[in-house]
Amino acid sequence: MGNCNVLDKKEEFQEAMQSIRNYEILDILGKGGFGKVIRVRRKKNNQLYAMKIMSKAKIVEKKCVSSVLNEKNLLKQLHHPFIVNMHSAFQDRENLYLVLDLLSGGDLRYHLFKNKRFSEEEAQFFAACIIVSLEYLHQNGILHRDLKPENLVFDEQGYLRLTDMGIARVWRPDNASDTSGTPGYMAPEVMCKLKHGIAVDFFALGVILYECMLGKRPYVGKTRQEIRDQILSKQIQIKRSQLPVAWSIEAGDFINQLIQRKPENRLGTDNPSDVKNHPWFSAFDWEMLLKKKYNPPYYPKKFKGYEGSLEDTMEDENDKKFILLRNNTLCEQFNEYRYNPEDCIKK
């Protein structure tokens, strides 16, 4: 009996400290700039999660410490059925670990690549999911600022959820210097280093819907400068003759109003509710969507994830990079990288 008590206390201590040892690693879901995303099962309750494992050395090397800490700090405040929520965050000497909702449907980029285009009904449903996720962020004073197909993930039912808060920011009046984002989806005011608000996310929504309708982005180029030059030279609008068969004029108008180069002309700038109240959504039941009682028009086939061996992806790619981590000053930058919701409950 005495030995059992010792083991129980050891397990409780391990859970309280938070460690990757508390999880069973199942398989690889994908690879990113700082490491990989894996499917895990928490040993305590057998719950499945997605876990982002991020190399501290790579984060430091790419000068993204503030971005990674920012994502954790924002997710700590947020919880919504249309975003990918955080369950815990912890670290060890070499890596940061972020435990998130597990979504099995793959991201919208994967499905765009596979399907090229979508029907109007499918695109409208995607738009609605994105709108309610943005509405939640905006009501909390947060701009996502990196809305793109890669950051929209399907759950197993077919609902889209928003992820990646790395460059999301709490809005502040003097934000002209916040110029991060992804060319092609980045609003003109951000590219031109001007003050900006929630309209930047609505511009990106318009680009995504344009892509769902026509299979390409409105402004393309090989470099950020080429895309910027295109945006500044001409206002792209969908003409009636460009509408695919079975797509409505209202859908085209909705997209056209979102991809306006000048934010003052963009739908949602003056009143965010104008986006939900556009004629394209006149028959849409928003309450039914929030309760997830809709039957999604597009069902994502099970996403296979990363095709590679678990052993290969778990190995360090370059041991020399970890020399950086011998510098205690660099390691101290990550001191606040932890979050355990159970601690909040105890308080």
Structural class: alpha+beta
- Strand percentage lies at 5-15%
Principal-axes shape call:
globular
- Quote the average pLDDT: 86
The CATH class of the largest domain is Mainly Alpha
- Count structural domains: 2
Count of beta strands: 9
> Over all CA atoms, what is the radius of gyration?
22 Å
Enumerate the spans where pLDDT stays under 50 for 5 or more consecutive residues: 6-14, 306-317
State the helical fraction.
25-40%
> Do you know the CATH architecture of the largest domain?
Orthogonal Bundle
Total helix count?
A: 14
What does this structure look like?
There is one protein chain. The chain is an alpha+beta fold and 347 residues long. The protein has two domains: 14-103 and 304-335, 2-Layer Sandwich (Phosphorylase Kinase, domain 1); 108-290, Transferase(Phosphotransferase) domain 1 (Transferase(Phosphotransferase), domain 1, Orthogonal Bundle), CATH 1.10.510. 37% of the residues lie in helices and 14% in strands. The chain is built from 14 helices and nine strands. The protein has helices spanning 2-17, 56-61, 65-77, 108-115, 120-139, 188-191, 199-214, 224-233, 249-258, 273-276, 286-290, 310-314, 328-332, 341-346, and strands at 23-31, 35-42, 48-55, 86-91, 95-100, 142-143, 152-154, 160-162, 169-170. The strands form three sheets. A five-stranded antiparallel β-sheet has the order 1-2-3-5-4. A hairpin with a 5-residue loop joins β2 and β3 (48-55). 36% of the residues are buried.
